[in-house]
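Lecture 7 notes: from sequence to structure.
We start with the chain below.
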Amino acid sequence: MIEPIIVVVTLLGLIAIGSPIFLALGASGLLGLYMARGSLAFFFGPTSLFGQLNSFELLALPLFVLMGNFLAATPVGMNLFHAAVAWLHWLRGSLAISTVGASAVFGAVSGVSIAGVAAVGSIAVPQMLERGYSRTIAAGSVVSSGALAMLIPPSVPLIIYGAVSSVSVADLFIGGIVPGLALALALALYLYVRVLIFPEEAPPYVGERVTWADRLRALAGIWHALALIAFVLGAIYSGIATPSEAAAFGALGAFVIAVFVFRSLDVRGILRVLGSSARISGAILLIMGCARIFGDYLNLVRVPDAVTGALVGTDLPPEAILILVMLVLVGLGMLVDAVSLIVVTTPILLPLITTLGYDPLWFGIILVLNLEIAVITPPVGLNLYTLKAVVPSLRLEEIVRSVVPFVFVQFALLIVFVLFPSISLWLPSLVK
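Predicted structure tokens for the same chain:
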């Protein structure tokens, strides 16, 4: 069939000339629907867009974005880093390992990777460089650990995947805990082993003796955020509230922490956070709606069925097909933003995954693990540009070089979760 080729070429052409991704997806999808159904395309298009966005669970997305933006306007990121240093200073490479710990917790606060890179990186990188850490350790630890926010709940990508795939967002949040913690531990272990082999990259901690009183005082600056995380996620996991309801309480709690506890925002600051959250949420939702138009066209001409049939018909073992899919996703992630990748590839790949006998919940976790690699690899790796923006003394080229070994660590862990799906599904099955 020539029509799908024309549609895909149109999509790639619009992206190549710099069109907004939502416009490229919507226009190419409408073109395909018009070629397939004529003027009815102008009925199917709006119906697809509205059908994608008309979801109660999707309300959690702008609310969690708002929650993260309120907390990003407070000293929580800085306090998390200082608390991690107070508790981990005895480790060789403690500042870099503390960066991983702080980013993991901040990921549970914000759900957006670039927020963690900006909040933690602006504090951690200058301190590491001042204490003699190598520039590659400083940059790589921040950029790679900032991606943990994509997997550790409340994760915005998991919310998007749940909306596209109809998998429970609460189950996805539970499923993201073990892989998220495993990835944080893998990054920390890599850093620890690396500085043992190359001690010149991370001088030992030199400073005042840290007492237990100092450690407890360090927690005083973050207990509000930790309590909010525990309340929001506890309400979801216990079944007391849906993700959307818990997100509403989380946004309100973050507002109270930012305005009344830390006094970080005045009226103008509140309006700025509201405006930024609306722009981010609006952009994501617009991409999701237009990508649904494109996805509905692909379903109409049975592209997912063709892909499934072609791959299953190769007689390759399921594990080989999965690794092939992972390599394709990693490659696409280097060229396409995370939101677009989820909403475009999920309708195509999910039928293949279910045909091979795998759980859609597991695939959502694996897909987001892929996206964690995507946000730290050029040319679309947003974490790279975010760190460059908050730490101008770092060159973009050395930031890119610094993440290479961390990409291998993440890809190795991705393969483990691909080959052993039960690891990702253990906690959700236990909770059920």
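Points to note: The two ends are 45 Å apart (CA to CA). The chain is about 80% helix and 0% strand.
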